[in-house]
Design brief:
This protein has about 200 residues and is α/β, with parallel strands linked by helices. The chain contains 4 helices and 8 strands. The protein has one domain: Rossmann fold (3-Layer(aba) Sandwich), CATH 3.40.50.850. The strands form 2 sheets. A 6-stranded parallel β-sheet has the order 5-2-1-6-7-8. Helix 3 runs parallel beside helix 4. The structure holds pyrazine-2-carboxylic acid (VGL) and zinc ion. Pathway: Cofactor biosynthesis; nicotinate biosynthesis; nicotinate from nicotinamide: step 1/1.
Length: about 200
Amino acid sequence: MSHALLVVDVQNDFCPGGALAVPEGDVIVPGINAAMAEAAAVVLTQDWHPAGHSSFASQHPGRAPFEMIEMAYGPQVLWPDHCIIGSEGAAFHPDLVTDRAELIIRKGYHRSVDSYSAFYENDRTTPTGLDGYLRSRGIDSVTLVGLATDFCVAYSARDAIRHGYEVTVRMELCRAIDLDGSLAAATVELAGMGVALV
Ligand code: VGL
Ligand code: ZN
Protein backbone atom coordinates (compact mmCIF):
# COMPACT_ATOMS: atom_id res chain seq x y z
CA MET A 1 0.00 0.00 0.00
CA SER A 2 1.00 3.53 -0.49
CA HIS A 3 1.88 6.49 1.64
CA ALA A 4 1.54 10.28 1.23
CA LEU A 5 3.05 13.30 2.94
CA LEU A 6 0.47 16.03 3.58
CA VAL A 7 2.11 19.46 3.95
CA VAL A 8 -0.39 21.79 5.60
CA ASP A 9 -0.53 25.56 5.01
CA VAL A 10 3.18 26.47 4.88
CA GLN A 11 2.25 29.97 3.74
CA ASN A 12 3.68 33.43 4.34
CA ASP A 13 0.78 34.59 6.50
CA PHE A 14 1.45 31.76 8.98
CA CYS A 15 5.17 32.57 9.20
CA PRO A 16 6.86 35.33 11.22
CA GLY A 17 5.91 38.70 9.69
CA GLY A 18 2.65 37.28 8.32
CA ALA A 19 -0.92 38.27 9.20
CA LEU A 20 -1.54 35.22 11.40
CA ALA A 21 2.04 34.40 12.29
CA VAL A 22 2.67 31.10 14.05
CA PRO A 23 5.76 31.34 16.29
CA GLU A 24 8.69 29.67 14.47
CA GLY A 25 6.40 28.84 11.56
CA ASP A 26 9.33 29.20 9.18
CA VAL A 27 11.89 27.05 11.00
CA ILE A 28 10.19 23.84 9.87
CA VAL A 29 10.62 24.59 6.15
CA PRO A 30 14.03 22.91 5.59
CA GLY A 31 12.91 19.77 7.42
CA ILE A 32 9.69 19.65 5.40
CA ASN A 33 11.69 19.97 2.17
CA ALA A 34 13.82 17.01 3.26
CA ALA A 35 10.70 14.97 4.12
CA MET A 36 9.19 15.77 0.70
CA ALA A 37 12.32 14.57 -1.05
CA GLU A 38 11.85 11.14 0.57
CA ALA A 39 8.05 10.85 0.25
CA ALA A 40 6.27 8.55 -2.20
CA ALA A 41 3.61 11.19 -2.88
CA VAL A 42 3.28 14.79 -1.73
CA VAL A 43 0.08 16.79 -1.25
CA LEU A 44 0.14 20.45 -0.21
CA THR A 45 -2.70 22.44 1.28
CA GLN A 46 -3.16 26.18 0.93
CA ASP A 47 -5.49 28.28 3.07
CA TRP A 48 -7.30 30.37 0.43
CA HIS A 49 -9.88 32.91 1.59
CA PRO A 50 -11.85 35.50 -0.35
CA ALA A 51 -11.60 39.06 1.00
CA GLY A 52 -14.30 39.54 3.61
CA HIS A 53 -14.28 35.88 4.68
CA SER A 54 -16.67 35.18 7.56
CA SER A 55 -13.83 33.85 9.76
CA PHE A 56 -12.22 37.30 9.78
CA ALA A 57 -12.83 39.41 12.90
CA SER A 58 -12.96 42.42 10.58
CA GLN A 59 -16.35 41.17 9.32
CA HIS A 60 -17.90 41.16 12.80
CA PRO A 61 -18.35 44.66 14.24
CA GLY A 62 -17.22 44.90 17.85
CA ARG A 63 -15.29 41.62 17.69
CA ALA A 64 -11.55 41.15 17.91
CA PRO A 65 -9.25 38.50 16.49
CA PHE A 66 -9.05 35.29 18.55
CA GLU A 67 -12.52 35.72 20.06
CA MET A 68 -15.03 32.89 19.55
CA ILE A 69 -18.38 33.30 17.85
CA GLU A 70 -21.23 30.97 16.99
CA MET A 71 -21.69 30.37 13.26
CA ALA A 72 -24.53 28.43 11.60
CA TYR A 73 -22.25 25.37 11.66
CA GLY A 74 -20.95 25.76 15.22
CA PRO A 75 -18.28 27.66 17.18
CA GLN A 76 -15.68 29.53 15.17
CA VAL A 77 -12.52 31.40 16.21
CA LEU A 78 -12.26 34.85 14.63
CA TRP A 79 -8.95 35.44 12.90
CA PRO A 80 -7.08 38.45 11.58
CA ASP A 81 -7.56 38.80 7.79
CA HIS A 82 -5.15 36.23 6.31
CA CYS A 83 -4.39 34.13 3.23
CA ILE A 84 -6.46 36.25 0.87
CA ILE A 85 -6.75 34.57 -2.53
CA GLY A 86 -3.84 35.59 -4.76
CA SER A 87 -2.06 37.66 -2.10
CA GLU A 88 1.59 37.40 -1.08
CA GLY A 89 0.42 36.21 2.33
CA ALA A 90 -1.39 33.28 0.74
CA ALA A 91 1.69 32.24 -1.24
CA PHE A 92 3.79 29.33 -0.01
CA HIS A 93 6.86 30.25 2.03
CA PRO A 94 9.49 31.16 -0.58
CA ASP A 95 11.88 28.44 0.64
CA LEU A 96 9.28 25.67 0.49
CA VAL A 97 10.14 23.38 -2.42
CA THR A 98 6.80 22.77 -4.09
CA ASP A 99 8.02 20.87 -7.17
CA ARG A 100 7.26 17.44 -5.74
CA ALA A 101 3.62 18.27 -4.98
CA GLU A 102 1.25 16.15 -7.04
CA LEU A 103 -1.83 17.89 -5.69
CA ILE A 104 -2.50 21.24 -4.05
CA ILE A 105 -5.74 21.39 -2.08
CA ARG A 106 -7.07 24.90 -1.53
CA LYS A 107 -9.56 25.39 1.27
CA GLY A 108 -11.59 28.14 2.90
CA TYR A 109 -12.68 29.65 -0.42
CA HIS A 110 -16.39 29.71 0.50
CA ARG A 111 -17.04 33.05 2.11
CA SER A 112 -19.43 31.78 4.78
CA VAL A 113 -17.58 28.63 5.92
CA ASP A 114 -14.08 28.25 7.30
CA SER A 115 -12.06 25.15 6.50
CA TYR A 116 -9.28 23.91 8.77
CA SER A 117 -9.23 20.29 7.69
CA ALA A 118 -7.77 19.22 4.36
CA PHE A 119 -10.74 16.81 4.10
CA TYR A 120 -13.82 18.84 5.11
CA GLU A 121 -14.94 22.40 5.54
CA ASN A 122 -15.81 23.43 9.10
CA ASP A 123 -19.46 22.51 8.54
CA ARG A 124 -18.02 18.97 8.81
CA THR A 125 -20.02 17.87 5.75
CA THR A 126 -18.62 19.61 2.65
CA PRO A 127 -15.72 17.50 1.37
CA THR A 128 -12.65 18.98 -0.30
CA GLY A 129 -12.17 15.89 -2.47
CA LEU A 130 -8.92 14.85 -0.79
CA ASP A 131 -10.33 11.56 0.50
CA GLY A 132 -11.41 10.53 -3.01
CA TYR A 133 -8.03 11.51 -4.40
CA LEU A 134 -6.06 9.52 -1.84
CA ARG A 135 -8.32 6.49 -2.17
CA SER A 136 -8.18 6.44 -5.94
CA ARG A 137 -4.40 6.65 -5.69
CA GLY A 138 -4.32 3.63 -3.36
CA ILE A 139 -2.91 5.68 -0.50
CA ASP A 140 -3.76 4.25 2.93
CA SER A 141 -1.32 6.03 5.19
CA VAL A 142 -0.53 9.71 5.60
CA THR A 143 2.09 11.72 7.46
CA LEU A 144 1.20 15.31 8.32
CA VAL A 145 3.52 18.28 8.77
CA GLY A 146 3.00 22.05 8.68
CA LEU A 147 0.92 24.80 10.26
CA ALA A 148 -0.73 25.08 12.59
CA THR A 149 -0.42 21.94 14.74
CA ASP A 150 -3.53 22.72 16.81
CA PHE A 151 -5.80 23.88 13.95
CA CYS A 152 -5.35 22.77 10.36
CA VAL A 153 -2.92 19.92 11.11
CA ALA A 154 -5.04 18.57 13.99
CA TYR A 155 -8.34 18.83 12.09
CA SER A 156 -6.80 17.10 9.08
CA ALA A 157 -5.28 14.33 11.20
CA ARG A 158 -8.60 13.74 12.96
CA ASP A 159 -10.50 13.42 9.66
CA ALA A 160 -7.78 11.19 8.20
CA ILE A 161 -8.02 8.73 11.07
CA ARG A 162 -11.83 8.79 10.94
CA HIS A 163 -11.57 7.83 7.28
CA GLY A 164 -9.44 4.84 8.12
CA TYR A 165 -5.97 6.03 7.15
CA GLU A 166 -2.94 5.22 9.22
CA VAL A 167 -1.90 8.67 10.45
CA THR A 168 1.37 10.08 11.73
CA VAL A 169 2.01 13.70 12.74
CA ARG A 170 5.67 14.70 12.78
CA MET A 171 5.48 17.17 15.64
CA GLU A 172 8.98 18.60 15.07
CA LEU A 173 7.85 19.60 11.56
CA CYS A 174 4.75 21.43 12.88
CA ARG A 175 4.27 24.61 14.89
CA ALA A 176 1.20 25.71 16.86
CA ILE A 177 -0.90 28.83 17.39
CA ASP A 178 -1.75 27.58 20.92
CA LEU A 179 -4.88 29.51 21.91
CA ASP A 180 -6.04 28.75 25.47
CA GLY A 181 -4.38 25.36 25.65
CA SER A 182 -5.43 24.30 22.15
CA LEU A 183 -2.12 22.56 21.49
CA ALA A 184 -2.31 20.34 24.59
CA ALA A 185 -5.99 19.58 23.91
CA ALA A 186 -5.29 18.62 20.30
CA THR A 187 -2.32 16.45 21.30
CA VAL A 188 -4.34 14.50 23.86
CA GLU A 189 -7.29 14.06 21.50
CA LEU A 190 -5.21 12.91 18.52
CA ALA A 191 -3.18 10.48 20.59
CA GLY A 192 -6.44 9.05 21.98
CA MET A 193 -7.77 8.53 18.46
CA GLY A 194 -4.76 6.52 17.45
CA VAL A 195 -2.74 9.17 15.59
CA ALA A 196 0.99 8.53 15.98
CA LEU A 197 2.61 11.74 17.24
CA VAL A 198 6.32 11.42 16.64
C1 VGL B 1 -5.30 28.03 10.08
C2 VGL B 1 -6.48 29.48 11.37
C3 VGL B 1 -7.13 30.00 10.27
C4 VGL B 1 -4.28 26.94 10.01
C5 VGL B 1 -5.94 28.52 8.96
O1 VGL B 1 -3.67 26.75 8.94
O2 VGL B 1 -4.06 26.26 11.04
N1 VGL B 1 -5.59 28.50 11.27
N2 VGL B 1 -6.84 29.51 9.06
ZN1 ZN C 1 -7.66 30.50 7.41
